[in-house]
Amino acid sequence: MKSFIIFYKRLDYISETAEIWITFHSDFSVSGDGFHAVWSTMSLVGCPQKTITESQGELFSPHYPFFLLPNLNCTYNIVAPGKFHLYGIYWQCDIHNVCIELLEGTRVWIKFHVFDIDFHNGRQQLPCRDEYVRLDWGSSKFIVLCGSHNLSKDSLQWISDGNQLNVHVKSRNGKQGRGFHASYKFSRAISISIFLYNKF
Predict the structure, then answer these.
(1) Per the domain annotation, does 156 fall within a domain?
(2) CB-based contacts of 65, cutoff 8 Å, min separation 6
(3) N or C of the chain: less Cβ packing under 10 Å?
(4) Model confidence at 117: pLDDT above 50
C-alpha cells in the first residue's frame, strides 16, 4: 500500500485497488481548519472480464472521457453467434476435381472513434510498454495499439476472421490520455475455398 504525506490544499487521488485507507493525525495546533474530502466509486465495466453477445454496441475504457485509470487489466469478449459452417451443402467439383466450398458465418467488426492512450504514438505489432489495447481475433492473430491517433485521418478498424474478437485493455500508471471509444457490430460473411480433391 502506498503512503502519502499531503501538504496541498487540493488533491485528486484515485486508488489503485478497490480499497483506500485514510488516516488523520494532528498535533496540538488549533490554527488549522481540518480537512474536507469528497469520494465516489467508479464503474469498471469489463474488469476483469465481460462477455458481449449483443449484435452491435459501443465500448468505452473505464472512466472515459476523463483519463485512463491506473492498473487496468480488462477484457471484453465479443462473441457473435455461430462459427463458419457449410453454406447449405454447397461443395462442387469440376471434371478436373477442382472443388469450390462456400462457408457461411458471422464476423465481428470494430471501429475506434477516439483512441488516446499513453504518449508513445503509433501502431505496433509488438506490445506497447505499459499502456495499450490488444485486439485478438484468432489463435495467433492480434494487433497491439497505443498512443494518440487523429482518427479523422487515420482510421482504426478491423474485422475478425471468425465469430469472436477480444479487446484487452492494460494500463500501469494511467492518467495519460482519455482512453478509447469504439463501436462494433456483427457482420455476415461467406468464405470461399478452392482446392483439389483426390478421392483415391
Answers:
(1) yes
(2) 114, 178, 179, 181
(3) C
(4) yes
Which residues constitute the domain of residue 155? 49-196
CATH label of the domain that carries residue 189 = 2.60.120.290
Per-residue pLDDT band for 90 (boundaries 50, 70, 90) equals very low
Return mean pLDDT, the chain: 77
**What is the average per-residue pLDDT within 50-67?**
92
186 in a structural domain = yes
- pLDDT over 70 at 7, yes or no: no
Q: Which of 199, 193, 160, 158 is nearest to 85 (CA)?
A: 193
Name the pairing type of β-strands 142-145 and 164-170. unpaired
Report the candidate in 39, 35, 34 with the shortest Cα–Cα distance to residue 21. Answer: 39
Residue 18 lies in a domain: no
> Looking at the 3D structure of the chain, how many domains does it have?
1
CA atoms within 13 A on the CB side of 197: 14
User: Is 24 inside any structural domain?
Assistant: no
